[in-house]
Each structure stands twice: as structure tokens, then as C-alpha cells.
Design goal:
3 helices, five-stranded antiparallel sheet, 137 residues, alpha+beta
Amino acid sequence: MDNKQITDHPEPGTIVSRDEFNPISISGSHDGNSWLLSTNHECHGSYGASQEVEILGLMLSVWSKTQANVVNADFSGDLIASVEKLAADVDGRCQHSSTVELSPTQASARGVNHFGNCFHVYRCQDCDHVFGMDSSG
């Protein structure tokens, strides 16, 4: 990887025009975990040459090598050490393989209010995590 691409990145808080915006997008793999380092930014105003883009920093995303999970974090410092830290986090997460669907009343008691129909709320029996899913397609 070209270290210059990272060190030449604008400081957080820098505002540039849309025409001057040059986002970073570098990807790779380390010990079986895929990663992406990219510019975290926010656009202000209507799309076009006069639009302003605020640089918020760099975002590092690491995908699990064992499950369909990804973790994102602000990046600064050593890339490999950051990838290894996030990989340990994402690979160690529960896979939610033992779930039960909650009724609307049970879901409401857990802080998820919905009207039923095509929205389903589940609780993982292994880690107690509650999550929802819209199955309407």
C-alpha cells in the first residue's frame, strides 16, 4: 500500500468543493479479513460543482472471515494494527444462530414498536441481542 495516499489526506473539518473532492478508497485483505479504508465525508448543499464537501476523517471497515458481519471505525494510526483489532472484534461476535421471533407485545417490551405485517423482531438466545427485519421485499 502507498503510505502517501494516507498521509496526504485532508484533515478532518476541511471543506472543499465537489470538484476538488478526491476521496480515498483503498482495499485489501489481512489474515483472511477483507478491509476497506475510505474517506468519511458529508455533503452540504445541492449536488453540483458548487456543492461543499466536509472531510470527517478516514473510515476503516473490516469484514468477518467467518460470518456476514462488518465493523466500522474511525481510522488513525497503524493500518495493520487497526485491521487486526477490528478483525478480532468482528470475528468474535455472536453469529445469532439461535433466535426466536418475538410477538409485537414482546418486541415492544424490548423497545421495538411496530405494527406487525411484514416486520419481524428476533432475540438471540445466545447473547440476548434484539434485532428486526422487514420481509416485505
